[in-house]
Structure formats: C-alpha cells, structure tokens
Write a structure and sequence with these properties.
hpI Integrase, Chain A; mainly alpha; two-stranded antiparallel ribbon
C-alpha cells in the first residue's frame, strides 16, 4: 500500500488551520488562524499547543488574557512600551497621548480588545467631534487612524486580539477647510517695517526666512553665516507640561540652510547680540510667552496698518506663497521650507496658483 497523498497548502504556500477560541459579546465566534510551512498536521499541533497554553494561563494567571484586556488598559501600556522614549516628548504628549486621552479612551473606554469590531471603529470616525461639537480636521483623523492601527497591530503581536479592526476604515473630511491667510508683497513689507520699528524681530525673521516658530526660538547667532548670507536651521524649541525643550528640528529635511538677502544680512548684523539665542539671550524664549507677545503685536499692527493679524504659521505660509508668486519652483520651496514630502509643498502652494494669478492680473 502506497504512502497517503500529501495535502496541498491551503493558504498560498503555507498550511492554515482555524480554530474557535471564544465568543464576542454579540455571540459571534472568535476565530484564530495557525500556519505551517511543513504540513497541515503541524499547523493543527500549533493550534492545540495554543489552546493548552491558554488553559494554563487562565489557571495560573501568569499573563493577561485577551478577554481581560480593555482598550483603556492597553492604550496606556502601548504608550508606555512603544512610544515613550522613542519619539520626542512634545510629540509623545501632543500627538499620541493627547489623542488617546481626549478622544479614543472616552469612546472605547472599557471595551475589550477582542470585542472591538471594524464597525465600531467606523462608527467612531463617523461620530467623533471636538468638545465644541465641531468636526475634527482631516489631519487629526489621519493621526488617530494611524494610532489605532498601530495599537491593534501590537495587540495582535502580543496575542491580545486576532484581527486589526482598523483595516478598510474610511472617512470623509467633514471639517471645513481652514483657509490660511497670507500677506501680499505690499502688506508683508509694511508689517516688516513696522515690526522693525517696534523691536519685534521674530516677525521680521519669519517673513524673511519662513522658519517655523519652534525653529525661530531655537535660532542662535552661531547659526547665521553673514559672510555667505546663510542661516542654518538645526534646532527647535518646544514646550510641554511647563518644560521648555531644545532639540533637533521637526524632521531630517528640516535641518537646512536658508539663503538670505543682502539687506536682511545687514539688518541682522546691526541687531544687539545679548546672548547665544537671537531672541532669548542665554536661554530660549518660552513658546507660550512668544505666542502671547506675537498676538499683542499683531493686534496693534492690524489696527494701525489695516492688515490681517496673522499667526506665526501664517507668516511662514506668507513667505512660501510670495516665493511661489515670484515664480520659484515648488522643489526649491520644499527645500527652503524644510518640508519632508514634496506633496505637502504642492498641496499648499500649487493650490494657491489661482490666487497668485488673480493678484498678478490685478483682480484681488
């Protein structure tokens, strides 16, 4: 009698065996797959070993079982294990921890990881709103989707759940797109001269270089090469939980050299050098303190010059828009602005081409 015919792999090039490991709160079966590149019997052996291990864990209580792991408990464990210390403290607090504590835990709370389905994730994105009842910005929704996907991927790797319910989730941008205000060339020149007369040097630097606020506050005199008319952006200052943090800029592409004009170079040389930092003396200025002073100046400029009061980010946006208006290509703008992806530059400044044409045609 010949040898029994070997079964062919039933999952691509590997063997798969599925077993039922429990039921969810709605009564549906929870299934888990086991794989082997050797044989189906080997995959079954892995499944049996898993069931034995689960039984031992339930008896001894050595490890947290999936049925006991809530979303909230796992969220904090994931933050502590996978994010704390691996990203900048500011990013940890304001991108990860803030979104989890402010939005995700209040919605999913004590739900068990094994009971959260794709429909629950989709319902979250359909219903989530700010505390004022407004839809969230697309960028915030994107961040939350990335967080949820990473959390469930890690949960699967730790045998806390068996499928990632974030896969296939879609959402529409319900928040109205916030139109960033910018100055025209004439308005920018007026504000710059007014800022010089008021000693608001940060406004001048942002209009001349397009740096981020964090980069402006991290700028030191040693970063300015007046001989070659260049500024080296290699430092950023952020604030979290009352602490002022100095570190590298936002991304690798944010560490850059920015060419500056002759007039701006002469102006920088004439500024008083009272410490290591251009704006803060021996220590960098507080981001929150700078924001308050900037707001007060802008209110005054708006009243006296009849121009819009712009945020620091809108001054940066003005710089990029005026470059585009002057005919500078988006690849150059990307490098000067320190964008990590050309799609960011094109999505912001190519869309502005219509307004640029309007201004150049004298129709604004």
């Amino acid at each position: 009698m010949g040898r029994p015919r070997k079964e062919k792999p039933n999952h691509g090039k590997v063997y798969e065996v599925k077993i039922t490991i429990g039921k969810s709160f709605d009564g549906s079966l929870i299934r888990k797959s086991f794989y082997s590149s050797v044989s189906k019997a080997d995959a079954r052996a892995k499944a049996e070993q898993y069931k034995i291990s689960r039984s031992v864990q339930e008896i001894t209580g050595e490890t947290p079982e999936p049925k006991h792991m809530t979303f909230e408990k796992w969220a904090y464990k994931w933050l502590e294990t996978y994010k704390k210390g691996t990203v900048k403290e500011h990013t940890y607090n304001f991108t990860y921890r803030s979104n989890i504590e402010k939005y995700l835990i209040p919605f999913f709370g004590r739900a068990l990881l094994t009971e959260i389905r794709q429909i629950d994730i989709q319902r979250y994105f359909n219903e989530v709103r700010t505390q004022d009842g407004e839809p969230l910005a697309r960028s915030t929704l994107d961040k939350q989707k990335i967080i949820l996907k990473s959390m469930f991927d890690a949960a699967i790797d730790n045998d806390l759940c068996y499928k990632n319910p974030v896969k296939g989730i879609k959402y529409q941008q319900t928040a109205e797109k916030c139109e960033r205000k910018t100055y025209s060339r004439e308005e920018a020149d007026k504000v710059e001269q007014f800022a010089k007369s008021c000693g608001q040097y940060g406004v001048v630097i942002m209009l001349e270089t397009g740096v981020r606020r964090s980069e402006l506050l991290g700028l030191q005199w040693d970063d300015i090469d007046t001989d070659h008319r260049l500024i080296h952006i290699q430092r950023a200052v952020t604030q979290t939980k009352g602490k002022i943090l100095t570190g590298p800029p936002k991304s690798v592409s944010s560490d850059r050299w920015i060419p500056i004009s002759d007039d701006f170079t002469v102006w920088l040389k004439e500024l008083p050098h009272t410490g290591a930092y251009v704006l803060g003396g021996d220590k960098p200025k507080s981001p929150y303190g700078y924001a308050s002073a900037h707001s007060r100046f802008m209110d005054r400029a708006s009243s006296e010059l009849d121009v819009p009061a712009l945020s620091p980010h809108e001054l940066r946006h003005t710089f990029g828009t005026l470059l585009r208006e002057a005919g500078v290509d988006i690849y150059t703008i990307q490098r000067v602005m320190g964008h990590s992806d050309i799609s960011v530059t094109s999505s912001v400044y190519v869309h502005n081409d219509v307004e640029v044409l309007r201004r150049q045609m004298g129709l604004d």
